[in-house]
Write a structure and sequence with these properties.
The complex is a heterodimer of chains A (485) and B (446). Chain A is of the alpha/beta class. The two termini of chain A are 45 Å apart. Chain B is an alpha/beta fold and 446 residues long. Chain B contains twelve helices and 14 strands. Classes of the chains: A alpha/beta (485), B alpha/beta (446).
């Protein structure tokens, strides 16, 4: 096996911000005072915040050192299942930081904001086309807010039919956000079990479906990396009982240009621009969760909507059936700009190719590791594949031990212990931007770890050893929370 | 098609990988998808652009936007222009922060985790609260989540909300409340620009009262008085904000007795970007922490006893609690929180106070100049960097004339408050010079 990327080098310690600095230092060039000081109402006046005073060099070293303690896509392969950690193109950053966008005030008259309104309008059109739906809102700030928006659309739709409903069907392979979003909207989630093939069966949905079910939330491809092959039959059953079909589109990276969600019977779908459309995840956001709908749901979309009047773009509130607003302004425009830049860089063939290669990479990993790790569903996978630690059980090595060891090899761990239907799950999503060489190295590393599990399990129990910190005590962190210093 | 720079596979790689998986073509990878689920036609989106074509296209779009310094924008209303130090922009661009995921694996995420722990700490200190979360999406969703949290704690079904809270935040709150049986009661504002609390005494089943300070009209609420009014009742005081720089000068929400402080942190070093991404800030008292939405970073130790940080108290969250979670939030606005903490640290306690005072002084200068020029400032209460002016009837024409001169003379309020015809909300920050303000007055008087 050739050298892995993981190694150790000189890495710096760095205290907390308030453990360094001295009163009287500053890292800020205070703007020149050209007006005189005015007295402040004594009853309201405060003392200002107790922040440390630091110099610019203090600040720069602090954050450069901290940054070096992070794993990132720009440093190595990050095969987190369901998270689509693809490469984040640098031209996207250039576009979003153009002063025309970065400094734009959201409440300027429309005549002075034509550029960004045009971009948003075209972005809606592209996403509508890519998903095969009829209309799109860009307003939700992240996937979970997209889900909430979708549930609010369900609610508004049923209310308009004067038939409010109280339940939502949620498969056991769903993201935790799905039931949480449904319940924010007052719906009671009803669990539907996937079948022995890892997908929804029409019978299970039929049994759970009744006149009080507002609809179903499906993730397709699902969290086992499998295409929901019965989706059309499932949608027919739900529609026949007056329900609606929601699709969590977090895994859209598998099917761009390959499947039209609209054709599958999906009524509402959210996308994650920070997954499929290459905007960076930022260590936990900001994301963007556009929602695409079929015609009957369009009247309920959030306002304002971008409209085109005689070649001029405008923001319109004139949609009386709208659910209202979910964001103070129009959503995470900075993320939209990056995703728009990505779509234009890829073009129609590039996007389809991206999905094909994402699936090829996952299939290749599945094929190469299936003897080494237990593969609970040995079926054609989409963009990700799910293994478990069952074969390592005899050596008392768990999924957690193996992925911690993977860090020492220079890879970010896959998603673990999810989906819940697979005990000890190891969910691997390589994405299309990893090369064959890097994937081969990942496969070799995983095989080496499986060998270590047999021969030297202690090594895995003690992993990781090359990281800034060893395993952290999460139990005591939760028992005696220390949430600020 | 020609080679795409983000797709590393050569035709030979593809052939070798297909052979390994025993499939003949890339199309064949999708053969298991039922035929009637597969798309037949190509995507109808524009052909790809080269990087250089893309730059031209985006420059054209960006170039059509009205921004400073070409335009003088006296408009805040929840989106503020402040100088961002180069060090902050530079550090925020570090790939290790930008291209990492949520820090689920703490051993390889200590950078993000420590930075967010520091953000939580400085945010708690700024707002005078005991604990802050790792961020919400924006000020509006932070307010909506705060009210839901207050309802969970108080087990009441009604909340009172000041009409001087940002109108767009209140609309998001209404959207969140629409499918619930919770009720929103509006508190109007008084002639001095603060919230009228007198109806509170007749509302005996309230779970929370929410005000914004500085409020949408720029006025500081008398938070201490509100807290006193609520004393002894089981009603939570929620203090919202859109301009946290004000707490460099004025007392913080926590100092005045707030139970939850929440709002928008865009003014802390985050670009306006047409309204997003921005930063939902959220803080509360330790006794309410288990009812709090959002991620939390906590301090702990590793195997060798060394200090480190982890995501904690996740039993509140959707991935564990599912439908019983305190919120559905998963991806938040972490990088914006990082920008905010870098900005706060760059200013330091001393710089933060000085900058707040400067914003205040510049605003007072413009207020006085407008008053001297004969314009009415209808609200007497102290303000921070925004205030309301009543211009003479027909000012609309002047406003349009100023637009042509590339001056945005504030935000017309009539669209948000129909009773405030001819009233405009003006904003001054440190980016506006005395000369800019003198020019504004001169142009208005023409």
């Amino acid at each position: 096996m050739k050298d892995t990327a993981g190694t150790t080098g000189l890495i710096f310690n760095e205290p907390l911000l308030w453990e360094k600095g001295k009163k009287g230092r500053t890292a800020f060039s205070l703007p020149r005072r050209d007006v005189k000081e005015h007295p402040v109402d004594e009853n309201l006046k405060g003392n200002g915040p107790d922040f440390p005073d630091l110099s610019e060099v203090d600040i720069v070293r602090h954050y450069i050192r901290l940054s070096q303690w992070n794993f990132s896509v720009d440093s190595g392969m990050y095969p987190l299942g369901s998270c689509t950690m693809k490469y984040n193109p640098k031209t996207n950053e250039r576009q979003a930081s153009q002063p025309g966008f970065a400094l734009a005030h959201p409440l300027l008259p429309e005549s002075l904001s034509q550029g960004v309104l045009k971009l948003m309008s075209e972005m809606e059109r592209y996403l509508t086309e890519i998903t095969g739906m009829d209309a799109t809102t860009l307003q939700p700030a992240a996937g979970a807010q997209g889900e909430l928006t979708g549930m609010l659309l369900f609610y508004a739709y049923h209310k308009s039919k004067a038939k409010p409903r109280s339940k939502i069907l949620v498969p056991d392979t769903a993201h935790g956000t799905n039931p949480a979003s449904a319940s924010l909207c007052g719906y009671r989630p009803v669990l539907v079990k996937s079948n022995e093939r890892g997908v929804l069966s029409p019978q299970a949905v039929d049994e759970a479906m009744d006149e009080d079910v507002a609809g179903i939330m499906v993730t397709n491809p699902n969290t086992l990396g499998l295409f929901e092959e019965n989706i059309k039959a499932v949608a027919d059953i739900v529609h026949a009982a007056g329900g609606l079909v929601y699709c969590d589109g977090a895994n859209m990276n598998a099917v761009m240009g390959i499947v039209n969600m609209g054709d599958l019977g999906v009524d509402v779908l959210h996308l994650n621009l920070h997954k499929t459309f290459s905007s960076p995840h930022g260590g936990g956001g900001p994301g963007s969760g556009p929602v695409c709908v079929r015609k009957p749901l369009e009247p309920f979309l959030p306002v304002p909507r971008v409209v085109n009047k005689n070649g001029k773009y405008a923001l319109s509130e004139n949609f009386p059936d709208s659910i209202g607003k979910v964001h103070a302004f129009y959503g995470n425009v900075g993320v939209m700009i990056r995703a728009y830049s990505y779509i234009l860089s890829m073009g129609p063939e590039g996007l389809k190719k991206a999905s094909q290669l994402a699936v090829l990479n996952a299939a290749y990993i599945k094929e190469n590791l299936k003897g080494t790790f237990h593969l609970p569903y040995n079926r054609p996978c989409m963009h990700e594949c799910v293994f478990s630690d069952k074969l390592q059980e005899p050596y008392r090595v768990t999924t957690l031990d193996m992925v911690k060891r993977l860090m020492d090899y220079g890879f970010h761990p896959p998603t673990i212990y999810f989906p819940l239907v697979v005990p000890g799950a190891i969910m691997i999503e390589p994405t299309e931007t990893e090369s064959k060489e890097d994937i081969d190295l990942f496969i070799e590393s995983m095989k080496a770890i499986a060998r270590e599990a047999q021969e030297n399990p202690e090594l895995l129990h003690a992993a990781p050893q090359k990281t800034k910190r060893r395993r952290l005590d999460e139990t005591s962190a939760a028992r005696k929370p220390r949430l600020s210093g | 098609m020609t080679a795409m720079r983000y797709l590393p596979h050569t035709p030979e790689d593809i052939a070798a990988m297909l052979e390994a998986v025993e499939i003949e073509s890339l199309e064949g990878l999708f053969a298991h998808i039922p035929e009637n689920c597969r798309r037949k036609e190509a995507l109808k989106i524009p052909e790809y652009l080269t990087e250089w074509e893309l730059n031209d296209h985006m420059d054209t779009l960006a170039g059509s936007m009205a921004v400073s310094p070409e335009y003088k924008i006296f408009m805040g209303a929840g989106s503020y222009e402040h100088h961002t130090p180069s060090a902050v922009s530079f550090l925020l661009g570090r790939s290790e922060f930008v291209t990492a995921y949520t820090p689920y694996q703490p051993e390889v995420s200590q950078g993000t985790l420590q930075a967010i722990y520091e953000y939580q700490t400085l945010t708690s200190r700024l707002l005078g609260m005991e604990v802050a979360n790792a961020s919400q999406w924006d000020g509006a969703s932070a307010l909506a989540e705060a009210m839901l949290m207050a309802i969970r704690i108080s087990r009441k079904k009604a909340v009172a909300v000041s009409s001087a809270i940002h109108p767009l935040y209140r609309r998001v709150l209404e959207t969140y409340f629409e499918p619930t049986d919770f009720e929103i009661r509006e508190l109007s504002y008084l002639s001095d620009g603060t919230t009228d609390l007198s109806p509170l005494k007749d509302m005996d089943d309230l779970g929370a009262v929410a005000v914004q300070s500085p409020n949408f009209l720029g006025c500081m609420e008398n938070l201490g008085d509100i807290a006193q009014t609520l004393e002894g009742q089981k009603v939570l005081l929620v203090v919202c904000f859109s301009e946290p720089l004000a707490y460099g000068l004025y007392k913080s929400p926590g100092q005045c007795g707030a139970d939850i402080a929440c709002g928008e942190g865009q003014s802390l070093g985050i670009p306006r970007l047409f309204g997003g991404p921005a930063l939902g800030m959220f803080a509360t008292k330790m006794k309410y922490v288990r009812n709090m939405p959002g991620r939390l970073v906590g301090e702990t130790v590793d195997l060798e006893g060394k200090r480190g940080h982890v995501l904690t108290l996740s039993t509140r969250e959707q991935h564990i609690r599912r439908e019983k979670a305190t919120s559905n939030i998963c991806t938040n606005n972490s990088l914006c929180a990082l920008a905010a903490v870098m900005y706060m640290a760059t200013l330091g306690g001393s710089g933060f106070k000085k900058l707040a005072q400067l914003n205040y002084d510049k605003t007072e200068y413009l207020k006085n100049a407008l008053a001297r020029a004969g314009f009415k400032l209808p609200f007497r209460q102290a303000t921070f960097n925004e205030f309301v002016v009543k211009f003479p009837t027909g000012f609309k024409k002047t406003y349009r004339r100023l637009l042509k001169k590339k001056i945005i003379a504030g935000l017309p309020l009539v669209g948000f408050y129909p009773e405030l015809k001819d009233h405009y909300l003006l904003c001054v920050t440190e980016t506006i010079t005395k000369a800019d303000m003198d020019a504004l007055i001169q142009e208005i008087e023409k």
